[in-house]
């Protein structure tokens, strides 16, 4: 490692500190890369990640947080900060904004983030609303399978589904492979009715999309929608205005044509419910993974936080995180869009 790189990470000596100046916080636990050589190459080509500069880049982001947002309650360890650098292709300013957005999102929507742990969501997990398939796609992306027809609105609100999605994203992003490769979403809209679709109005849509696009360090590489009824045109009309062009272009609507799906996701990685050869869809395995991570989520999401964190007032929230008052007419707009599909 060059002397210049070392100097960027070296704390000032005690002699250089004034009498009233506190020494810098101790350096968090060191990082050990778990990427294969192929993924290191992919990260270099796609994310501008240079292994020889990696720790310098992490330290630069850490220093920015300490300087500009000293009261932000966040982890500053290497592995955690790397998620944000990778998600923004090692652009320091954009990575810092993503980190601030990440925490702002969690403060701004208590219905989703309060007491966020697997044991509080056993009913949603048992419904089969969401799972992660056991095989990745050919690019190495985990496949998040969502089945809205499994949700019964009279049992619990739609925010419980969003909580399970967020838990799953948090678990997936712990993997360095996922940080580099991104994820794929497979959404099965079979049996989704007008009454169920109306729960996903502009207010919810903007919140969720704001988090996925600007408030979470993950790369969404594709969204494959299957078995969508005519009502989905109304759902997508609600979602599309909030999508960035890059993400909107990654939506693929297959209808009931599984051959179309198989051109993107091979049969060998899909369960038989989607014309695949990988056995029946199993939700129990992923549920067990989440439930086994209970203590991690309790530490992260179930600790007391200040009612008002001054740092969030200075941060720019993602566009989707607007107040509910701005969407007072959302249900009328939703129903108008949805009814027009019939």
Automatic annotation (TrEMBL):
One of its GO terms (molecular function) is phosphatidylinositol bisphosphate binding. It holds the Pfam family CRAL_TRIO. Gene3D superfamilies: Alpha-tocopherol transfer (1.20.5.1200), CRAL-TRIO lipid binding domain (3.40.525.10), N-terminal domain of phosphatidylinositol transfer protein sec14p (1.10.8.20). Residues 1-31 are annotated as: Disordered. Residues 8-19 have a biased composition (Polar residues). Residues 117-282 form the CRAL-TRIO domain. InterPro entries: CRAL-TRIO_dom, CRAL-TRIO_dom_sf, CRAL/TRIO_N_dom, CRAL/TRIO_N_dom_sf. This is Alpha tocopherol transfer protein like. It comes from Pipistrellus kuhlii (Kuhl's pipistrelle).
